Amino acid sequence: MIRAEETRLTEGFLVGRDRTRVSMLQFADDTIFFFKASLEHLQNLKIILLVFGQVSGLKINLEKSSISGINIGLELLSNLALVFECRVSEWPLSYLGLPLGGNPKTIGFWDPVVERISRRLDGWKKTFLSLGGRITLIQSCLSHIPSYFLSLFKILASIASKIEKMQRDFLWSGAGEGKKDHLIRWDVVSRPKELGGLGFGKTSMRNIALLGKWLWRFPRERNGLWHKVIASIYGTHPNGWDANMAVRWSHRCPWKAIAQVFQDFSPFVRLVVGNGERIRFWEDLWRGNQTLCSQFADLYRVTSVKNLSVSDVLGNSYPLSWNFNFRRNLTDSEIELLQSLMLSLSSVRLSPSLADSRVWSLSSSGLFSVRSFFLVLSKVSNPILFLPAKFLWSSKAPSKVKALAWVVAHGKVNTNDKLQLRRPYKSLCPQWCILYKGNGESIDHLFLHCPVTIGLWHKLFNLAGLVWVPPRSFVDMLVITFKGLGNSLRGKTLWQIACLTLVWMVWQERNNRIFEEKGRTEEILWDLILFYSSLWASCTTAFRGVPLSVLQLNWTAVCAS
C-alpha cells in the first residue's frame, strides 16, 4: 500500500495543518481503506488486494466487505460498489465494536450499551441471587459493560443516569423479583469501600478515568498515526507534552471530550528532570506541589522570557548558571525571594544523557492506571471514613454474609422500627422482638442487646477465652479491635468469619420465625454458627490442609498451631 501511494495508484486523504496522510486503518484482519471516489483508484485497490491474496494465501472476501461514501451521490457509490463487488453501507459504520460517524451526543448512539445491559439482566431473571451475589455481578459485569464505549466517548448525563438506575434496581430488587426498598442511597453505595460504599463508582467518573488514558498515551506514542492526526488537527499544548486543549470544534470527533478531562488529569502528573530541555522552568510542575511561577510570582513577573526551559536557567553543568534573564534590577524583597528560590533548587542536578520524563503521582510505579485515576475522582468532598469497612471487606466470609453486615452497619436493615418508618400505613408492632417475645426490635437490639443474641456473643467470647462487655452499638462492635482467637492469620481469619456468621444467623432466625413460623433454640443456633464458621474458614488459604472435622472440634488449638 505504501508503494501504491508513492506511485499514485491509490490515494488516501490529508488531514490537519501538517497534511498528515491517512490511507488505511488496520487491526488484525479488520481493515478500512480510504480513497478518492475514483473508478481508477478503486480498480487499483481491488487488484492490489487480489495480488495480496495470491501472494499470502489469504483470500479477500469481497462479499463481506462494504463501501461507504462521504459527500458522494448514491448513484456513484452504487456504481463503485458494483465494480468492487461489495455492498453499500450507510453511516454510522461499526468498526471493532465501536460506531464510526455516529454522534455521541445523541441518545440513540448509546442504545447498544443500554440494550446489552438489558440483555444481560434478562439472562439473570430466573437465577436466584442473594444481595452479595448481585453486588458481585455489578462489580464484575454490569459496571464494565459500558467501558468500551466509555473509553472513547463522553457519555450523556441521561444515559449515565439510566445505566445507574438499572444497576440500582438490580442491586435492591434483583432481576424479576419486583420492586423492593432501596435501603441505602446510591451516592453512598457508589463510594469507595473505605468511605462506606461498595466501590461501584459513578458512571461519569469511570468515563473521565477511561478518557484520561488518552492524555497519558499522547506524549508517549509520538510515532503513532493517531498522535500525528490529533497533533495535526488541534496542534500541541504550550507545555510541549500534550495536545492543544483549547478545542472549539469537534466534527463529531471524541477528542473534544478527551481534552475536557485535562483539568482533572493534569494535577496528578509530575515531571521528572533529566536534561531539562523539555520542562519549562517557571510554568511546569516539576518541583514541589506548585509551579515556580505560582510560588515566586513576583520574580516571574520581572522575567523577560517566560518559557525558558530548566536547562536554559540552570545550565548543563555544576555549579548552576542561574540565567533568569530579569528585565530590570531586583528590589530588596525580590532579592530575598531569589535567594529562597536558589536555595530550594541548589540540590537539582541535570543529566545531559537522560531525557526529561513525566510520571503519574498516584502510582508507585509512576505509570498511569485507570483504577488510580478513578479512585481519586470518586473521593467525595470532606470524606468521612466508614470505620467498619476494614473489618467487613477483609473478612473471608461469603459475599452474602458480608453484604448483610454492610447494610446492618449502615443501620438500614429492615427491622420493625425501620419498617414502621418506611411503611407507616401497615399494621406493624415496632416494639416487638420476635426472638425473645419482648419489646424493642431495633438494629442494635436485634444484633447485639437481645437476650438471645447476647447469649450467642457470650458463647463466642467465652470460646476465645475473653471477658467481654457489650458495646453501646453494633457499629462499635465492628470497630473495636478484639484479639479474639489470637493475632495469627488463622485466628484473625476465623474470628472475622465467626462474628459475621453470628450476625447472619441471627437475621436468618429472625426471618424464619416471622415468615415460616419456625424457631430454633439458642443451642442449635450456636451449633450452626460453629459449623458454618468452620466450613467457610476451611475454604480459605489460612486453613489449607486442616480437615473440617478437626477445625470444628477445637478452634483455639487449630488457630494456635
TrEMBL record:
InterPro entries: RT_dom, RVT-Znf. Residues 1-100 form the Reverse transcriptase domain. This is Reverse transcriptase domain-containing protein. It comes from Vitis rotundifolia. It comes from the Eukaryota.
